[in-house]
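tool_call: predict_structure(chain=1)
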Amino acid sequence: MAAGVARRDLADLSCRALAFWALEQCGRSISPVAFWRYLKDRAASHARLRRVRRPVGPKPDTAFAHEPNTLWCWDITHLRTPRPWEFLYLYVLRD
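tool_result:
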């Protein structure tokens, strides 16, 4: 690959993916940080924001919730533990 030549097939790859590509295709081990610095110095890297915006629906009507036990909010997430591949599940319910 010639220096300074941009390739469209590699344009959307992350720095980590570029490091793997360089190792597989060119036989060179280059760190993702080195790719990031290289792209940053040439103003070729920018923040990758979510490209598809989800439509925002109307807010739910909560005018009826004047007493306990009429409207509930909940969330479920998993938390990492010091042991690999072991998670704790956190369930939160709010009245």
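agent: The mean pLDDT is 82. Proceeding to next step.
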